[in-house]
Amino acid sequence: MTPLSIFLENLDMDASTRTIVTLLAIFAITWFAWTRVKSKKGSSSLPPGPRGLPLIGNLPSLGPDLHTYFAGLARTYGPILKLQLGSKLAIIVSSPDLAREVLKDHDVTFANRDVPAVARIATYGGLDIAWSPYGPEWRMLRKVCVLKMLSNSTLDSVYGLRRREVQNTVAYIYRKAGLPINVEEQTFLTILNVITSMLWGGTVQGEERGRLGAEFRRVVADMTELLGAPNISDFFPALARFDLQGLARKMSGLAPRFDQIFDRMIEKQLNFDELGDSSRECKDFLQFLLRVKDEGDAKTPLTMTHIKALLMDMVVGGTDSTSNAIEFAIAEVMNKPEVMRKAQDELDNVVGKDNIVEESHIYKLQYVHAIMKETLRLHPVVPMLIPHCPSGTCTIGGYSVPKGSRIFINVWAVHRDPSIWENPMEFKPESKFDYSGSEKVDLTEKFGIVLKLKNPLVATPTPRLSNPALYRTPYVSTIHHSRIPNNNVSLLHFLAPENTEMLNTVVAGLWSRWWDASNEREKLFRTVLIMAVAMITVFWFLWNNIKPKKAVAAPSPPGPRGLPLVGYLPFLGYDLHKKFTELAGVYGPIYKLRLGNKLCVVVSSPPLAKEIVRDKDTIFANRDPPTSALVFTYGGNDIAWSSYGPPWTKMRKIFVREMLSNASLDASYELRKQEVKKAIRDVYNKIGSPVDFGELAYVTSINAVLRILLGGGTIQGEKWTDFVAQFRSHAAEMMVLLGKPNVSDLFPVLARFDLQGIEKKAKRLAVTIDQFLQYAIEQRLNEEKTHMDDRKDFLQILLDLSKHEDPATSITMDQVKAILMDIFLGGTDTTTTMIEWTMARLMQHQEVRQKVYQELQEVVGSNNVVEEFHLPKLRYLSAVIKETFRLHPALPLLVPRFSRQSCMVGGYIVPKGTTVLLNVYAIHRDPDLWDNPLEFRPERFLNGDTAGSFDYSGNNFQYLPFGSGRRVCAGIPLAEKMLMLLQASLLHSFEWKLPAGGVLELSDRYGIVIKKMEPLMVIPSPRLCNLELY
């Protein structure tokens, strides 16, 4: 016997292994048979497209934004391509010529729809205009809707209803003048109010209309959510009877609620007619449809079910699409101040500031009309239109389109095609206009049942009309203002444990029958067959993934290859800044690394850094917070880690304008000065003995920062000493956890297991630190009750802001604590490390140290102590500290940025969700940018034409110690004052020398900040003549 037969005869698999092998075999056989059948039917004439997996096709590779994904595929495969989505064949068309073939030349063939399961339930079996099959019934419905219900005369008759709701909205926004409003929410509410008013505004009046509107809105929100959810039953119709995700069941429970509302309204109107009021003029769509029903054609009558389906079309088709188009238009106009001014000028000319807009004005507002057209070009509300379904096989663009395919027309791609439109990505309502904008509005899109803004537009209105009476309205809004819940439904929800129990039972039964063989020979044959099928499946998968891919227009950055699963992690080493600099020498100024399942892009040149932090700042303005950082900052509720958006903008504005203003820093100067004096006194007591300079700087910095944060009066005496000592101990443990590599950050799928226990330790420590902060806050609040003073430390400023009623300036108590943590973390280790590095460099370069001493003697003198008003005059010491930051940036890779969407940087594509690292360590030591870059030479920041451009704000991309752009370090003013005051005071008060036989070590070690490998031990001796100054 051969070794293989011996192995197979003795093969003993458990139930789980057998189940897996069986499923693989079934998948492989089904896929093989399916592809063979397709090839016999002449699949070569089908459009090109990417290969998919057996059974499920291209479903796993779709991603959330279908319109951009399909546009990307069109660049690779051409203007017509195919995708296998489950058992459905999808054809995507992305050019005007092919769109014309589908919509005009072969209009009748493609006039049908492929109705989703939930839409069929919602529209009474597809009895509406959107989903009903092409034929006499559909033509009758369209005729009723277009020629009668939406005729000019009918729309004019319900104008008063539309006008009433628009005036309600204007009045509501006027009451909110000066406050941010959610434009998406407000437009949705307005449109829904308008539509419900036109549906039955003349039938239902007063409080009943308000109650009905509120109920209706809740049902609309639930239905919109279900219609937008991907449904496995639509991709695999054979599984529709099982309703694996339960969407059909949910819609079946929701549809009767709609039906009950419609029945109540219809019954109410019929009661009016019975009372002899049927001759009155139609005041809403419901009255009109009921009259058309009574006068209808006997051959194709309009039934009551048709009326309900048409009303449903009006609600679903008229709310989200209209409100999102308006939101996109406002967002684009806010990005173009010139366009806004032109629109407002046109409104002033046509309407005037003493009138409100009437429908009679609309036809004269040509520029506003052009704005809406341009908005719909860039942001079509239904970017793929409603899919068409051919009633027969036909040829499009030279390719065969089979009967029953699902046809998507990607109008989003057509509208942005550079071969059709000049500068297609630019918002231009007219042919040309000049533009110079200020702050940009984020126009990132989110795919769904309609195209939406990914981040809701929040804008602050200010009145423009001169007559305040025009903002007042006697009407009451139909619906109260509240936020619609936004819940995403996963396509793979059907794989949840409760849904797979039946699958396990079926597979187990089939498996037991398969292995119920009459003899060992037959059992061996079945084993060989299963293994062969499994091997074929594996080989197919490997071939499909290893084969050369077609070239794409935008390549990824180069980079080293990594290992499966772990990527490049095993090769990183300890000093990331040096390793990344070394890799930049091999792969260039931009390259990629796969670290676990995170894609990282490392940038090491000023032009590319400028692209990220300035040119595409909003795209890269987010963070990818580590697990431990989220714990310590109350869920990323701070400035350092929170996502870019209105909350972050508000916190940063508060931080910069309130806490770090010149007035606030001047008010807290005495607190800083006290701690520096204590440090001088402590050093004086250790004259002649070695001092750990880094420890000295750390203790002084942490004491000073806590004093600035919490003030001098809140906690006194021994309580303050104990408080600082304990807080310092916990802070040291916190810095260790923040700097520790965490497998949960590199493999988010494993985060729930917390394999290293870092999250558990962080949570336990965060509770302790929160108790300390809460104690300080309570002490301050109790102090306020007994007596008031004019103390303005940072805690008092934040507590005052937390009491504001204005949401534009108020903050929560969690945000108070998170901001305190930001200042503490950012103001201790960074300052400490840089003071130690500066002193180390001064000990290495005696001539530089003597120049610093000479400058201190001239500016301060030997009979004074250093004060903050001396600091701007210490130009050479400032240059010394800048040179230290150049050679030893505290954060050599800065805080990582996170791309919120895919974009081009340096000619390479940086995908959405990439972690971007700026290697300022490499930029600061680049010989192409700096003369003798490894030499410590402070004069480079004093001499030369560009010396004055090197500041800490990141305006010169050759020098970025604190970053640049929106996410530049917000605490620069405080850090600069603290660092300069402590450094100057220690140098001015003492001479420093190395211990006998001591060796100056300048090696560094990578961590949350770059520190010296070995502590700097130095011996102080007094410099000042007047010993009382100590």
Automatic annotation (TrEMBL):
A Pfam family it matches: p450
GO molecular function, one term: iron ion binding
Domain of life: Eukaryota
Transmembrane segments: 15-34, 524-543
Translocase listed as a keyword: no
Record keywords, A-Z: Iron, Membrane, Metal-binding, Oxidoreductase, Transmembrane, Transmembrane helix
Keyword Oxidoreductase: yes
Family: Belongs to the cytochrome P450 family.
PANTHER family reported in the protein's UniProt record: FLAVONOID 3',5'-HYDROXYLASE-LIKE ISOFORM X1, OS08G0547900 PROTEIN
Protein name according to UniProt: Cytochrome P450
